[in-house]
Write a structure and sequence with these properties.
There is one protein chain. This protein is mainly α. Helix 3 runs parallel beside helix 6 and helix 11 runs antiparallel to helix 12. The chain has a single domain, classed as Cytochrome C Oxidase, Chain A (Up-down Bundle). The C terminus is likely disordered. 68% of the residues lie in helices and 0% in strands.
Length: 528
């Protein structure tokens, strides 16, 4: 019985593999590359904003930089990171399956993702795009440079990767669960990916169609969004945010699934309120489709529509709050150990809570009118997407790293990195809440001198945050060669993935798995 890491070592065998574990590693390599490319753009942005004058790059270059940062980070890191890496690797293991339902489709989704990413980078290198990551009209249809078409088509193409991944997960969870593994015995990580997959399959086609409409209007002057041709620019915003607000939960729900596995493991307790947690996950996925209008409060919509979207936006906070309270209750009286995965999970709870509470400010009509075009929105978005999703992604990487590689990383450096990420992130983005409150507009490459102190603090925090991101890359790479060998279950985890070897064999389990009780209580038979 051979490990997936030792069988098929040649490049050709890796590039033609249908093993879900290898595909997850291919995704991890590509996603890490895109993360640091997008991060490099952010470094230049923060250097530019350290001084009030636009003295590092001109306005046009600045617009292209924050567009590149947003497009790469959203579509090529945040959305695919946890599902395509951790979900791909773990879902078959967690449900006692040998592989995903459609292994070839899984590999095809990686190639589609890679082609879309290369196309996007090509468009950026040819001269860039200056529309912002939202591709708002009329910028994307009338005023921007011709490279919009290349990038928009690349994002359109990448959407098929998300759809195929979501479809694969849905069928796998429905059809390939081990005997005895009923719905309410599933790990919350699996519940989170099931809900995310539903959003991917239902919402991504709307974005894809919207991207195609931009290309049609640019190439053929068909009046879709351009009012001079009889179109409606607000139609674009409705279509875009109908996808993009659920997309927030594409990034956050898998992160919640990761944290829901880490917290009970390191608190040595069962997750508190398991059924409520599962219902909350599905409730977030459903309500996420009903609140896109809160991104458009200043677009001229009717007062009644605005009030409806405002009310729904407050309501969607309820299932998120349930999860935070249940994590807290799980920690209560737990025998907690503060290993690196737990530090990242606790960091996620703190950052996500701050981001969620400040989201309520933006859900209020009167406050949103003042805040929506300021740095308050930038801070809120990053607290949810980066502080939350990236902290959970790194927590999941550390938690399952021994299972993936069969090696342990240096725990001390991992704890230092987790602390630096939490401190650096807050120093970077909390000043931006204050900047937004004071009225500093976002998307500007120069600003009034009275905002400089807070911007210098933000740029200083970004340098600490960058070290917090680089450290794991270094010590995890070191551990591949020099880390001590990991036991099958170093954290005393209770899921099925911990009942096989580290790294798992090609076939995942040596014997068919049969589950007799809740996976988080007693794992089933069939361990390697």
């Amino acid at each position: 019985m051979s490990s997936y890491l030792t069988e098929g070592p040649t490049l050709r065998q890796w590039l033609t593999t249908t093993d879900h574990k290898k595909v997850a590693i291919l995704y991890a390599i590509a996603i890490t590359l895109f993360f640091f490319i997008g991060g490099a753009a952010a470094v230049i942005i923060r250097l530019e904003l350290a001084t009030p004058q636009g003295d590092l790059v001109p306005a046009q270059t600045y617009n292209e930089l924050f567009t590149a940062h947003g497009v790469i980070m959203v579509w090529f890191f945040l959305i695919p990171s946890i599902p395509s890496v951790l979900g791909n690797f773990l879902i078959p293991l967690m449900i006692g399956a040998r592989d995903l339902a459609f292994p070839r489709l899984n590999l095809a989704s990686w190639y589609i993702y890679l082609i879309g990413g290369v196309g996007t980078l090509w468009g950026m290198l040819l001269g860039g795009v200056d529309t912002g990551w939202t591709f708002y009209t009329p910028f994307s249809t009338m005023f921007s440079n011709s490279h919009v078409i290349i990038v928009v088509l690349s994002v359109f193409f990448t959407g098929f990767s998300s759809i195929l991944t979501g479809l694969n997960f849905i069928v796998t969870i429905h059809r390939l669960r081990a005997p005895g593994l009923t719905w309410f015995k599933l790990p919350l990580f699996v519940w989170a990916h099931y809900a995310t997959s539903i959003i991917l399959v239902l919402a991504t086609p709307v974005l894809a169609m919207t991207m195609v409409l931009i290309v049609i209007e640019r190439l053929f002057q068909v009046g879709i969004f351009d009012p001079a041709l009889g179109g409606d620019p607000l139609l674009f915003q409705h279509l875009f945010w109908f996808y993009s607000h659920p997309a927030v939960y594409i990034m956050v729900l898998p992160a919640m699934g990761v944290v829901s596995e880490i917290i009970p493991t390191f608190a040595r307790r069962k997750i508190f309120g398991y059924r409520f947690m599962a219902y909350a996950i599905m409730g977030i996925a459903l309500l996420g489709f009903l609140v896109w209008g809160h991104h458009m409060f200043t677009s001229g919509m009717s007062m009644y529509a605005g009030m409806t979207f405002s009310l729904l936006s407050f309501f969607v906070a309820v299932p998120s709050a349930i999860k935070v309270f249940n994590w807290t209750a799980t920690l209560y009286k737990g025998s907690i150990t503060f290993d690196a995965p737990m530090l990242y999970a606790l960091g996620f709870i703190g950052l996500f809570t701050i981001g969620g509470l400040t989201g309520l400010f933006l859900a209020a009509l009167a406050l949103d009118v003042h805040l929506t075009h300021t740095y308050f929105v930038v801070a809120h978005f990053h607290y949810i997407m980066v502080g939350g999703a990236v902290a959970a992604y790194l927590g999941g990487i550390h938690f399952w790293w021994p299972k993936v590689t069969g090696r342990m990383y240096p725990e001390m450096w991992a704890r230092v990195a987790a602390a630096m990420l939490f401190f650096g992130f807050n120093l970077t983005f909390f000043p931006q809440y204050l900047l937004g409150y004071e009225g500093m507009p976002r998307r500007y490459h120069s600003y009034a001198p009275e905002y400089q102190l807070l911007n210098v603090l933000s740029s200083a925090g970004a340098s600490i945050l960058a070290i917090g991101y680089l450290l794991p890359l270094c010590y995890l790479a070191w551990s591949l060669f020099y880390g001590r060998h990991a036991p099958s279950n170093p954290w005393e985890g209770r899921g099925l993935e911990w009942k096989t070897l580290s790294p798992p064999p090609v076939e995942n389990f040596s014997n068919p798995v049969v589950v007799h009780s809740h996976v988080h209580e007693v794992a089933g038979e069939g361990a390697a």
